[in-house]
Structure formats: structure tokens, C-alpha cells
Amino acid sequence: MAALNTAAIRAMKGKEKISMLTAYDYTSAVLFDRAGVDMLLVGDSLGMVMHGRPDTVSVTLDEMILHTRAVVAGTERAMVVSDLPFMTYERSVDNALKNAARLVQKSGVRAVKLEGPHYEQVKALTAAGIPVVGHIGLTPQRAAEFGGFKVQGRTTEAALDLLEQARRLQDAGCFSIVIECVPSALGEMITEALEIPTIGIGAGPGCDGQVLVMHDMLGLFDRFVPKFVKRFAELGQEFQNVAAEYSREVKNGVFPGPEHCFSMAPEELEKLKK
Ligand code: KIV
User: Fold this and answer.
1) Which of 28, 37, 44 to mutate to test the pocket of ligand 1 (most atoms within 8 A of CB)?
2) Is 85 near ligand 1, meaning CB less than 6 Å away?
3) What is the CA radius of gyration of the chain?
4) Tens of pLDDT along 226-266?
5) Which residues pair with 133 in a beta bridge?
6) How far apart are CA 86 and CA 146, in angstroms?
7) Strands, E, within 1-55: which ranges?
8) Do 113 and 140 form a contact (C-beta atoms < 8 A)?
């Protein structure tokens, strides 16, 4: 099965919607890849859903490398993209190049995502052969600056600013852009203005593709559920029920049953007992 690359993802614009999910480990990568999800994002949201932190700013490059390597190992067809975490690219182009190179070389990922209007970094990374996905609108690494997780681009001025950012990220070399938490009309307007695909999360159905955090989509995370999330299953409840049943069976001596146990030759057992 051929792996999807940047050209294949770009070619989907206007022809086929792009499905993207976050993944943080080998097993979920295998399952999502088999399910035909086009892109797997090792998002720095892993700080919240895998490590229980309040936000994404404390996620380190080493943590991204560890999780990304696992996702890459489980993926055959999907295009894997990994987030550059907070403060690994904003300070300078050199910093971005050094950290992106480390992420790519240590994890095996081929493309990275960075948040915000960092055009020079995008230019340098793409020139160095590292494909980049942009991310505009609500950029969680800067949520404190926005006063929390709030819808962006609701005024004409803010919407025009996001449109301009999208155009400039495209010109800088991004092969796709994630648009997070903006009015649907703006998501559609940006999508129509660009030649590269947009992937929306809370940006309406007009985007070229959609992304969700896997724990939200599977119903595994309920610390907060944003309006844009559709819970396609309630696996959290299912996990809990199954774990409770396991615990009951252990306590009642029902598990393990004979079918889960190993035997030894009776004569060996006799010798052992002597
Ligand atoms: O970190 C992440 O999971 C993301 C998505 C929300 C797009 O950036």
C-alpha cells in the first residue's frame, strides 16, 4: 500500500475530503491507518489527553519524539505529521531548523506542524526538505494570549488578518493549513482563497478536510468537550465497564479460568511435591 505524501494530500483538494485524526501511540496508529484515515497528527494535545496536563505549553521535543516514533511505527498508508512544541521554533529560524531536524531524524516523521504566522521558519523548513502544515485561528500554544480557548476571527478585521496569514503561510511553502475554531463562513472563505488544502477543527464543513483529537472523537476524554467535537463513540464508559468486570472476576476467582492456565506433566508435579 503506497504511503500518502504531500503531493497526494494536495491533489485531494476539491476532489475528496481529507480525514485527519490525532494519534499518539502505536496501537491507535495501526487501527486508524487500517481504517483509512488519510493523515495522523501527533498533536501536542498529547500533553493534555495522554499526560493529564492543563494545556500544551509544557510538552517537550523529547516527548514529541517518543510518541511520534510509536505512531510512525504503526503507520503504512496515512501521512504522519508531528507538532513542533511550544518554544521550539518561535525564537529563530535556526532554532526551528535544529529542532525540526531532530524531530524528523529521531522519530522518522516526514512532516511537521507549527502554530501561528512564522513565515520565515516555514520558508527555511520547506527549503531544507521538511514539509510544513500551518495552524491558524485558535492556536492552543498561545491560548493564554487569547484569554483561553475562544473562537477567533469573529470581527471583519480579525477575519481579514487570518485570511492574510493563510495566504502568507501558503506562499511561504506550507502544503496544508489547520484552521481551528473560527466561524464556518471564514473557514470556507479561506479554503476558497487557497490552492493548498485546509483542515478544519471547529471551522465548519467548508474546509477541505477535518481533524479531531482521538480522545474526543472516541469519547475517552471528558474534562471538557468543545462545541466542535462529535463523540462518535462512548469508549470511556466502555473502558470503565470492562475494567470493572475484570476487577470483579479477579476478586471472585472467576478469572483466570482453566482455558487461561498452563499444565505440567503429572510425574513432574509429583517430583516437585516431594
Ligand atoms: O495538538 C493537536 O491535537 C492539534 C489539533 C487540535 C489540530 O493541534
Assistant:
1) 44
2) no
3) 22
4) 999 999 999 999 999 999 999 999 999 999 999 999 999 99
5) 113, 176
6) 15
7) 18-22, 39-42
8) no
Q: What is the DSSP letter of 85?
A: P
Q: What is the CATH number of domain 6-233?
A: 3.20.20.60
| Helix, strand or coil, per DSSP, at residue 41 | strand
Task: Give the CA count within 13 Å in the CB-facing half-sphere of 261.
Answer: 7
Cell representation of residue 86: 511550544
Domain residues of the chain, as ranges?
Answer: 6-233, 238-273
3-class secondary structure per residue, 240-259: HHHHHHHHHHHHCCCCCCHH
Say which of 90, 115, 180, 249 is annotated catalytic.
180
Dump pLDDT digits (tens) for 44-53.
Answer: 999 999 999 9
Contact status, residue 45 vs residue 140, Cβ threshold 8 Å: yes
Is the full-model pTM beyond 0.90? Answer: yes
- With a CB cutoff of 8 Å and minimum separation 6, the contacts of 4 are 38, 39, 77, 78, 79
Helix (H) or strand (E) segment spanning residue 25: none
